[in-house]
Design goal:
This protein has 463 residues and is mainly beta. It contains 5 helices and 30 strands. Helix 4 crosses helix 5. The N terminus and C terminus are likely disordered.
Length: 463
Amino acid sequence: MTTNIQTLLIHNLRQMKLKHLTITLVSVGIAVVAGTEAASAASFKVIADGLNNPRNLDFDREGNIYVTESGFGGDGSDGRCIPSPSASYIPLCAGQNGSLIKIAKDGTRTNILSGLTSLALSPSGEQAAGPADFKFDSRGNAYLLTGLAGNPNQRDTVLRSPDLGKLYKVDLNTGGLTTLADFAAYEALNNPDGSDVISNPYAFAIKGNNAFVVDGGGNTLYSVGLDGSGIQNVAALPTKLISPDKLEFPTLPEGTVDPTGGAPLPPGYTTGSNGLPVSNQSVPTGIAVAPDGSLTISEYTYFPYPEGEARIFSVNPDDLEIQTLADGFTQLTGVTYDPEGNLYALQHINVSEWKAIQQGGIITGDISGSVIKIGTDGTRTTIWSGDGLEAASGITYGPDGNLYISNRARLAGTGQIVRIDPRASEQVPEPATIAGSLLAAAFGKAAMAKKRKREALAKAEMV
């Protein structure tokens, strides 16, 4: 490690609160994919390039793609900067360069919304928060979610950016935004998970007349009425207690005694074996509606982003009761389903983030990510790993049967939208870890009935 990198690391570990709230996107845990590799036969294509922190996307009825770009923040010359919750020595500065773009089938790009607030590490423009997700409902109405990645009490004052941390209904004809929920204000007043006061709405899904929003800063799930009735319910994601002495941390430079600088630990934090604070917080990043109508949520995990410890949750949309559906992943940043009920999980980097990339976008290792397919019977298959898939966040199953992913999604100027054809993959199954009692709820009774029918027919043929 060079001297410059050591300096960055020391400052980073001294001051960061160690919850990756801009959610520095990372992917497939080596523990999950050990011994398996995605086949090179799978189809991978770049659909759009040169994007600034691209995040989530959706399709309209004509098959056009709508992508949120979180932008690249500002230079701080106007004073709109706050300390980063994950890297306090690097300021998060606001600028008006977030956007929503449309990508037509022929590749033509159109700016649908521009000049939206972006908050990013300065001067790199990395890990931006701003336009975070966009969705259409079944009637064609459009909705936009904006992130924050900081203390919500500083949003309206220091940042002068009251549009961050909210869900909007969008008039695509005029560009008008109507506020449906203010998650930053709710976090500031209520702090649902009881830890440090941070908000970063990251993704949402629509079911019926409600939106379900995951906040990776507040570690919470919200249900919001799309009729203008506001926040209906909220639940904190469950923590996962891991003994700090079992966690792997960066090696500190010789002579470092107190990397926190003597600062008091935030609520919900403990001290690790080498003096670094850890939190056990969940950090949800992606959400999708399962075939049976339940919700499926992906988890990023907390610093030091332990490999093989990220979970996938199943949630009852009526009361937000949360159960663990699957475990053993690394830094998940999205989930989606195909029409057959197979689940696809996006893992942003295959190793703990700090092993591959430093705050400010300094790449020091392999930032390859992966896509893992979880079949209706629980079988796991890595359909793509590395080979162009890097630091991705946001995955959607497209109407053409392909997976669409925001690639290099934590970086400014080099972000991409990529397409992977899961049908072209030579699939290598992995041991299933999903409990059988949860399969029916997670993947739908219809899929299980089809499986039982196939088994019955196979037995009949053997008689």
